[in-house]
Specification:
The chain is of the alpha/beta class. The protein is about 40% helix and about 15% strand. The protein has three domains: about 240 residues, 2-enoyl-CoA Hydratase, Chain A, domain 1 (Alpha-Beta Complex), CATH 3.90.226; about 190 residues, 2-enoyl-CoA Hydratase, Chain A, domain 1 (Alpha-Beta Complex), CATH 3.90.226; about 35 residues, no CATH class. The strands form three sheets. Strands 10, 11, 12, 13, 14, 15, 16 and 17 form an eight-stranded mixed sheet that branches. Helix 4 links the parallel strand 3 and strand 4. The longest helix has 18 residues. It is elongated and about 105 Å long. The protein starts with a helix and ends in an 18-residue tail after the last helix.
Length: about 525
């Protein structure tokens, strides 16, 4: 019988074997592709020495593959801490059977998802897999579905973040898609339901892997990815930063940090930032950064639907979600993509008790048959629904244009906006002066034959309309705007509002769940 020391030596030996994954050669091949190994990723992500691994000695149960077995079976799972806060993690190991998912692989992932739900801690999935393990057939498909089910149950309960650091194809894409945020890296990661070869066979279209499902495609065109980084190291640091804005679960508030930026800091530049011409653009991110703590803004989906800006920031140390129309792109108009982007972000913030600060400069919804055929009515309703359903503190600042239905959608007082401010430059009306005069004075205008007289009449009526309607005082008269504020004081007014709303309690009517217009 072996002595205790021999048994311990055996344990140490087996651990060393497990940590090598698929072996030195496969690790070298992983590095040659510019990718880290599963365990290297975990080491960079978590606090030093905090990782506690689960199921290190698990192997597959497929008889036809008995001649080739590896400890951990293609995924490293466990728990650790980030900035001292508990985190659960699973990291797919491409050096073992290409990171393909087996029955035991899935069971390991399900175990950490179940435990994270029990204790109320975020889950981070690091994806790098060739997909389902073909030799296991339906058992691997069942394994995916088991993971999907847990992603669904965890949604809105604990934050879920997915990083795609390699291939993620076929059914495998749906686990990241069910989580809150997806991060991808340039040149080394891709996602698609069907690969280029199948696409060519079925449709005849010839397309590269990168053009079909590369990181840039999903960051700019599909909106599938929320963050795009050049390297895995950058991506892992970004995940750590993202988590600093989030609570552990839906029953907790996000962490409040010490703040070195004076709350009463006046930002004189804001008094002049809105151009004199209503048709001239400006960068709304300049306004956001001027008002938040230390100009520190973590933008979400930066390269997608640029006509609306979403992201995380802090006011006096309190995390908030920022939504802002962006006049630099499409004049800040709401279209299908912008509505979807902002609606999902608003719902995430509401699920995890993160207050919403909205900066409004919106001329309306984008007109045209392409938008109508694409369902702008339904997609616009998503954003409307998200704001109306949200019970977190909501502070809204109207900067310039706020026209028509888009005014209602952007966290208006009637959608239970808690504090609604406007700058003196705000134009809150059914529509802009030009369109309004065409509707109201069209018959009179058509009867004027002299071009000069016609132009003079139109200018006169547009000026009258602007003075009467396109200003914040009409809305303030009815209490739809709580106050008209000097732009330079915006930071202080937002912070005071958020502090007053910190104990807000609001509950929606009891129901199984709402039927959001999907």
């Amino acid at each position: 019988m072996s002595s205790n020391s021999e048994k311990i030596r055996e344990l140490v030996s087996r651990r060393e074997e497990a940590r090598l994954g698929g072996g030195i050669k496969r690790i070298e091949a992983q590095h040659a592709k510019g990718k880290l190994t599963a365990r290297e990723r975990i080491e960079l992500l978590l606090d030093d020495g905090s990782f506690e691994e689960y199921d290190m000695f698990v192997t597959h149960r497929t008889k036809s593959m008995d001649n080739e077995k590896y400890y951990s079976d293609g995924v490293v799972t466990g728990r650790g801490t980030i900035d001292g806060r508990l985190i659960y993690v699973y990291s797919q190991d491409f050096t073992i059977f290409g990171g393909s998912l087996s029955e035991t692989f899935a069971a390991k992932v399900c175990k950490v998802l179940d435990e994270a739900m029990k204790v109320g801690a975020p889950v981070i999935g690091l994806n790098d897999s060739g997909g389902a393990r073909i030799q296991e057939g339906v058992r691997s498909l069942a394994g995916y579905a088991e993971i999907f089910q847990r992603n669904i149950l965890a949604s809105g309960s604990v934050p879920q973040i997915s990083a795609v650091f390699g291939p993620c194809a076929g059914g495998a894409v749906y686990s990241p898609a069910l989580t809150d945020f997806i991060l991808m890296t340039e040149n080394t990661s891709y996602m698609f339901v069907t690969g280029p070869k199948v696409v060519q066979t079925v449709t005849g279209e010839v397309i590269s892997t990168e053009d079909l499902g590369g990181a840039t495609v999903h960051a700019t065109k599909s909106g599938v990815s929320h963050f795009l980084t050049e390297t895995e190291e950058e991506g892992l640091l970004l995940i750590r930063k993202l988590l600093s804005y989030l609570p552990q679960n839906n029953l907790e508030d996000p962490p409040v940090l010490d703040n070195s930026d004076p709350i009463d800091r006046l930002e004189e530049s804001l008094n002049q930032i809105i151009p004199d011409s209503a048709n001239k653009p400006y960068d709304v991110k300049d306004i956001v950064k001027a008002t938040i703590d230390n100009a520190d803004f973590l933008e979400v989906q930066r390269n997608y639907a640029k006509n609306i800006v979403t992201g995380f920031a802090r006011y006096n140390g309190r995390p908030v979600g920022i939504v802002a129309n962006q006049p630099l792109f499409l004049a800040g108009v709401l279209d299908i993509n912008a509505s979807r982007k902002a609606a999902r972000f608003v719902r995430f913030c509401d699920a995890f008790n993160i207050p919403l600060v909205t900066f409004v400069d919106v001329p309306g919804f984008l007109p045209g048959s392409a938008q109508e055929y694409g369902g702008i009515i339904l997609h616009g309703a998503k954003l409307l629904f998200a704001y109306g359903e949200a019970t977190v503190p909501k502070v809204t600042i109207t900067l310039r244009k706020s026209y028509g239905g888009a005014h209602d959608v952007m966290s208006s007082k009637q959608l239970r906006g808690d504090v609604n401010y406007a700058w003196p430059t705000a134009e809150i009306a059914v529509m802009g002066a030009k369109g309004a005069i065409e509707v109201l004075e069209g018959r009179n205008i058509s009867q004027i034959e002299d071009p000069e007289e016609k132009a003079k009449y139109i200018l006169q009526k547009e000026t009258e309309y602007t003075e009467k309607f396109a200003n914040p005082y009409q809305a303030a008269k009815y209490g739809y705007i709580d106050d008209i504020i000097e732009p330079r004081n915006t930071r202080f007014r937002i912070i005071r509002s958020l502090e007053a709303l910190a104990t807000k309690k609001q509950v929606n009517p009891p129901k199984k769940h709402s039927n959001i217009p999907l």
